[in-house]
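Sample A.
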Amino acid sequence: MTPALSALLLLVPVLALALLLLQPGLAEWLEATDAAPLAIDGLYAKDDRIFADRFRKLAVEWWQQPDPLGHSQVDLGPGTLLARPILVAGLATGAGVGLEEEVWARESLRLGAGSLARALVSDGSIHLARDCKVQRWIHGDTEVTLGERCQVSARITAGERILLSAGCLSQLVSAPSIEWQSPRRPMSMEIPSHARRWLRRRRIPETGSNWRISRQETTGGTVFVNGDLILDAEADIDFPLVVRGNLYIRRGALIAGDLKAHGNMVVEGSTVVGNLCCSGNLLVGEGSWVQGCLRGDSLVWLGDEVVVGRPERPEAVVGNRILLAGTGTVHGRLRALAGWVEVES
């Protein structure tokens, strides 16, 4: 055996022992410490009406040309199929109509049950009866109403209000006021027995080897918590809080400041003045009001009588999948990154 090989064989156990001794420090160094909010795509600054605006710019010249429909109020009977762009003063259809190209109505636009359309834009309101499908987008300058089980593959936008019924699906929904109506579903709130409470006036529970609290002034006074944490009506939080676990906010809590969890987050009937984001599921239960943005890296569930944002300050709700239950309102934007914005049926 050569001297070099002998030295190498002696070095291996020494390095292994050194790594073993350094393991606790390395684990702490690699621990998630990110205090920045998870990215919320575009918030409300992005103009979600881009497709409707581009189509109107393209179609405005067509209004100067003669058209068989006469740009008047048009009523289409059940089962009618049109395979060209339509520009009318107003449109109402029977059931099962097929509109294979874009439709622009200067007034109201109404589709009968089970109709299929490519894209719809109205200078007034749009109403879709149950089971309608739109392959691309919808925009109404005033109001958009979707009946039960309607599906819009890309986006729904409105200048004032959107109303979604049970079973509706879309990828993006944007308006100053988005409302939904579906069966009311109770939220299951399971709090593990080992979760600790944050008490009034910044008093904190005892710390242990696997659960500690630290404040880092270098990150704007953000407080980091290891483990699962409970905030209830007695909690006094008016600073940024990062939980390296699951975060549970019990009914009646009033929380100021941005909250982030590296696990799941559950909000039960509380008011939060700030942003909520988590790396898992974000569940917002009955009667909650969140005045900031919401982001869940997996599922975002909004329950009965939930309100997000304010009319004068729209916010964004972003998740891989968004479920809406009961009746509620979002002032701003709903965006599903990998699945659907879905109203439970």
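Sample B.
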Amino acid sequence: MENNKFRILLDPAGGLYRNEHVDQWIFQKKRTSGVQPDLVTSEIAAVAFDLLRTVGADVFSTRCMRYSKAEIGASEDLLFHEGAGQYLQHCRLRPDLRERPDLQQPPPHVWNDGADNLEKDARARINFCDHIKPDLMVTIDITRHEEDPGLEIVHNSAGGADALAENILREVAKRTHRKILGARAMREEDLPAVGCDTPVLILNCGSTHDLRTAQRLTQPWYRTSVALGLFAALWKHAAVARREEAVLR
């Protein structure tokens, strides 16, 4: 860990992308039960992002975390609303993460990998992870299950991801007062994250098709509580990692 900082990549799922078939910018998931999932994920990530930076973590994100009404993207909507495939074309990397000193943005293979813009968005997230090599990557997602029995995390079993998944579930459940469905290993349908060497976790925060959890997703207290639980688990995990590193020295 460079400069003893724990490097975390937050990945709020969804966001606007340009659909070539209709030649329009659209969200990746439809608004359901008064919830736009692609915005909820970015709002949760933004709170966790700011908290982690405040305590000194080295935090990155696959989408813009500046919730500013003044920053407009290529979609002519807020930059905060756009997906990874668009954002990662233009975000600036600090010098130690650049492929070349004169190339401020991630290299083209990060954001230009895929048959269409939706596939490029999905692959850009993992390609960016491979490029910056974080200690872990956490995707924040909203499902569309008819029933939502509780909080769930999917993990790729790399580098202690299973234990961290359980910790995140406990911390988020403690603050949201939701039941824990549990953690499971990724399956083939979870590609491309399933083949990533970095520990990758996908936190499912609720379903827009389950009316009870959909109502919670509309509430600022719930979104903030998810972010606080995520922050607490990640920061405790980082503290343990720092202690273990100090012992090895």
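B remarks: The radius of gyration is 17 Å. Residues 2-248 form a domain with the Aminopeptidase fold (CATH 3.40.630.40).
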